[in-house]
Specification:
Strand order of the largest sheet: 7-8-14-11
Number of helices: 3
Order of helices and strands: EEHEEEEEEHEEEEEEH
Strand content: 35-45%
CATH class of the largest domain: Mainly Beta
Shape: elongated
Helix content: 10-25%
CATH superfamily of the largest domain: Urease metallochaperone UreE, N-terminal domain
Radius of gyration: 27 Å
Number of strands: 14
CATH topology of the largest domain: HSP40/DNAj peptide-binding domain
Structural class: mainly beta
Distance between the termini: 64 Å
CATH architecture of the largest domain: Sandwich
């Protein structure tokens, strides 16, 4: 088992878990399990306890099923596809070493944020009038906090704002985080009267 993880002791006390094939026994393939984590858990780290069932050998050579709880320390900055292996904690079969269990990190979809490497992206909808005349926005952060962002520019398609240090934690630099990139979705009016159309034309015709 790597240094980042630890597990509870087995409920059995009369059997020995074999951690290597130094005795010449064949090592069976790893048992692979998916571990789903939220963006918050992957950004800030967490402890996850996982119940497993596995086949074990008794002292009489019988195979019985055993329940165990494995404790996984998810470190800040882990990504989808990160693997964490518990050696010798998989199924036992006669004539082989105990299999390893490998947990593969998966990422739950977040309703607001999207991960892009070490950065996060959020899309904010703006009425066209705010995009043209400027506005003050409330920007959400992954930790639940919010901040105010004042925009004086004209927001055009593709316009972005970046807030440094509000993205994901970096795996090898846990005190450092990526950026939060803000994209904008413009809300156009669904209907204009002839008078409004004329006024818009008068205002905008010389603006390009």
């Amino acid at each position: 088992m790597d240094s980042n993880s630890f597990h509870t002791l087995s409920k059995r006390t009369n059997s020995t878990i074999i951690y290597s094939n130094a005795n010449g026994l064949q090592k069976p393939p790893n048992m692979v399990k998916r571990l789903e984590c939220t963006l918050q858990e992957l950004c800030f780290g967490c402890i996850k306890k996982v119940n497993i069932k596995r086949d074990v050998l008794t002292g009489e050579g019988q195979i019985i099923q055993e329940e165990q709880v494995l404790t996984i320390k998810v470190k800040p900055g882990w990504k989808r596809g990160t693997k964490d292996t518990f050696e010798g904690m998989g199924n036992e079969t006669p004539g082989t070493c105990a299999a390893d269990i490998t947990f593969v990190i998966d990422e739950k979809q977040h309703p607001v944020f999207k991960r892009n490497g070490d950065d996060l992206e959020v899309t904010i909808e703006l009425p066209l009038v705010d995009a043209l005349t400027g506005c003050t926005l409330t920007v959400p952060y992954l930790d639940g906090e919010e901040s105010c962002l004042e925009i004086d520019d004209i927001i055009t398609p593709g316009y972005r704002k970046t807030i440094p240090g509000q993205g994901m934690s970096l795996p090898k630099q846990e005190e450092t985080r990526g950026n939060l990139n803000i994209k904008f979705s413009l809300q156009f009016p669904q209907h204009l009267t002839e008078e409004q159309r004329s006024e818009c034309f008068d205002i905008l015709q010389d603006s390009f």
